[in-house]
Amino acid sequence: MALLTGTRGYVVRKVTWSLGTLLFVLVFNFFLFRLLPGDPIKMYTRGRNTPSEQLIKLRAELNRPIGTQFLEYLSNPFASTINSTRFNRPVWELVAERVWPTVLLVGTAILIASVAGIWLGIRSGWRRGGTFDRWTTGATNTLYAMPEFWVGMVLIIALPMFPSGNINTPGVSGFPDVFLDTAWHMVLPVTALAIVYLAEYTSIMRASLVDELRQDYLQLARAKGLREDLVRRRHAVPNALLPTMTLIFLNFGFVIGGAITIETVFSWPGLGLLSYEALRGPDIPLLQATFLLFSIGVVVFTLLADLLYAVLDPRVSSQ
Amino acid sequence: MTSSLAWTRRRNTLLRFWGDFRAHHSALAGLAILACFALVAIFASLLADPEGLNVAKATAKSHAPPSADYWLGTDGNGISILTLLIHGTRVSLVVGLAATAIAIVIGTVIGIMAGFYGGWARSLLMGFTDWFLVIPFLPLAIVMASVLGPSLVNIIIVIGVTSWPGTARLVCAQTLTVRSRPYMERAKALGAGSWHQMTRHVLPNVMPLVLAHVVLTVSIAILSETTLSFLGLGDPTRPSWGKILDSAYGTGAMSNGEWWYVLPPGICVVLVVLAFTLVGRALEVVLNPRLKEER
Q: Which residue range forms the structural domain that includes residue A130?
């Protein structure tokens, strides 16, 4: 029993739960594509002319007992035995090439959006019901209603001077040039993603700050004679940042959704565009790989959020 | 006698509810927008001849800017974008509502069972719900839609099956609070079975909060439909707002600056989704007295 109480118990519980979720994702990812009625070969090669040798290899792979296939898959989900049907290359090799562009794009957008969102959330939450708050809330509601990719499409039409696709211009080389060229190509996709994430982060920060406004310690701080500005900066905001940080981590699935459509619109060679290329085939092995990677990402970030919360707020783990 | 009394009470509750709801002007605006789009969806065939959707019969120039004949220009096949928008309204609303219905039924059944039975049933069902909640929505929907193949029914199933966990959690939490109320004990003492307790006591008390959630779920379902259609997972035979954007993307409308191809479908999505959100938020405040005091 002692194992399951206190901070250690909390960590053990969270890690166990994450492992269970991972197992669920693995099983789901494997069986979804195998248990459907019909010939799996047909589904794997739908809509394309597959070379006969690739077809023979695929058939030999899929005709093995399903139990053996499953155990092999479980022992190492990243050792793909089936090549991507679209590129005819090992899927994880394709995935590995695409990780960094996505990290660069999404990372930059999250950084900008979280800083701006937290600032906006503080301003509107502190004087809730005021003019600024009403405008911000209206704007966040409208942004929520916009499909991310549409924001990207409108930006391309509205700002034709920026490059509308790809990560760099072919032929550009040398240290500062490549760097600047990539930054130049990032302007539109990062703006589009940041606008979409901004709505999310602003509303999260506003809600956490509004939750803090009722707390007695703010009253005490005012009674001590602190200026309103200091009450906000020293007392309310640090406490409101706690849930905001964890919610930003928890909403990683939402970040992925934005990355898939925005990378598609801007032909950004990342994981999102790879998923789009996989589903347009459909290229089942590649789809399985991207799905697995995204799900693992979300599980890991959820675990990080839980652990971070325990570090930032000791009350959580001592319960 | 009792039944007439019950009806008067119900009518009064409804009137009071409407009075509260009417105070939210943004929600009334949302309701008006929704009424307009519903009318467009119902009378789509009268407003725009469905023959105009036939690619083989399209006579107009493709990618043409707005003109007197084609108010919103034409798409890559020379079909009027206004006609596509009008008929697309139907698909977006039908998918949004049908997918939400599926999600609400699954979510409510799982949530009530988990909350009512508690213990192991609750750990099991809510654990399962949490798993689904963690799996990122868009990748899951993409995988399911690719496996099932593109069609109207399949897109409804995919969105419905991926959107229920939120409902299940809400219903479970509500059921837990209802379960401890004295009238549940009274019902049990009078010999009510589980089924009777769940359908006659828990469900009616949980439903009001679920109603607000339903409206918000519709808005997310419509957004999801647009995204999936844009990715090419929608029904290829029916026009929808997402599909117009997909064909705009596919035929290079953005690099040619064809704003009439990109803006209208997006604005329709924003209007409908925003309208559902505004109505849903207002319902939340009206039906949940705790929120009313706070905001």
A: 91-317
Q: Which residues of B32-56 are buried (b: 16+ CB within 10 A; e: fewer)?
A: ebbeebeebbeebeebbeeebbeee
Structure tokens at A213: 């406004």
Establish if A75 belongs to a structural domain. no
Q: How many angstroms separate the CA atoms of A255 and A173, rounded?
A: 31
CA-nearest residue to A140 within chain B is: B274
Nearest residue on chain B to A286, judged by CA atoms?
B143
| Structure confidence by residue, pLDDT tens digits, B250-290 | 887 778 878 888 899 999 999 999 999 999 888 888 887 66
DSSP, residue by residue, chain A: -GGGSHHHHHHHHHHHHHHHHHHHHHHHHHHHTTSSSS-HHHHHTTTS---HHHHHHHHHHHTS-HHHHHHHHHH-TTS-SS--TTT-S-HHHHHHHHHHHHHHHHHHHHHHHHHHHHHHHHHHHHTTTSHHHHHHHHHHHHHHTS-HHHHHHHHHHH-TTS--SSSS-TT--SHHHHHHHHHHHHHHHHHHHHHHHHHHHHHHHHHHHHHHHT-HHHHHHHHTT--HHHIIIIIIHHHHHHHHHHHHHHTHHHHHHHHHHHHHHTT-TTHHHHHHHHHHTT-HHHHHHHHHHHHHHHHHHHHHHHHHHHHH-THHHH-
Residue A57 reports pLDDT greater than 90: no
Subunit contact A32:B138, Cβ cutoff 8 A: no
Instruction: Please name the member of A144, A264, A279 whose beta carbon is closest to the beta carbon of B146.
Output: A279
pLDDT at position B294 is 46
If you measure CA to CA, which chain A residue comes closest to B256? A157
Has residue A203 been placed in a domain?
A: yes
Say if A8 falls within a structural domain.
no
What average pLDDT score do residues B54-64 get? 73
Q: Give the total number of structural domains in chain A.
A: 1
Work out the number of other CB atoms within 10 angstroms of the CB of residue A173. 9
Q: What is the CATH number of the domain that holds A130?
A: 1.10.3720.10
Give percent above pLDDT 90 in chain B.
Answer: 24
Residue A76 is assigned to a structural domain of this protein? no
Q: How confident is the model at residue A165 (pLDDT cuts 50, 70, 90)?
A: confident
Mean pLDDT for chain A overall: 83
Rounded to whole angstroms, the Cα distance separating B66 from B57 reads 20
Tokens for B52, please give them: 């105009």
Q: Of the candidates B227, B257, B294, which has its C-beta nearest A147's C-beta?
A: B227
ipTM, two decimals, is 0.86
Distance from C-alpha of A162 to C-alpha of B98, rounded to nearest angstrom:
41
**List of chain A residues whose C-beta atoms are within 8 Å of the C-beta of residue B231:** 260-261, 264, 276, 279
- B232, B255, B266: residue with CB nearest A147: B266
Per-residue pLDDT tens over the stretch B158-182: 999 988 998 998 899 888 888 888 8
Task: Indicate which of A28, A150, A271 best probes the interface with B, i.e. most B CBs within 10 Å of its own CB.
Answer: A150
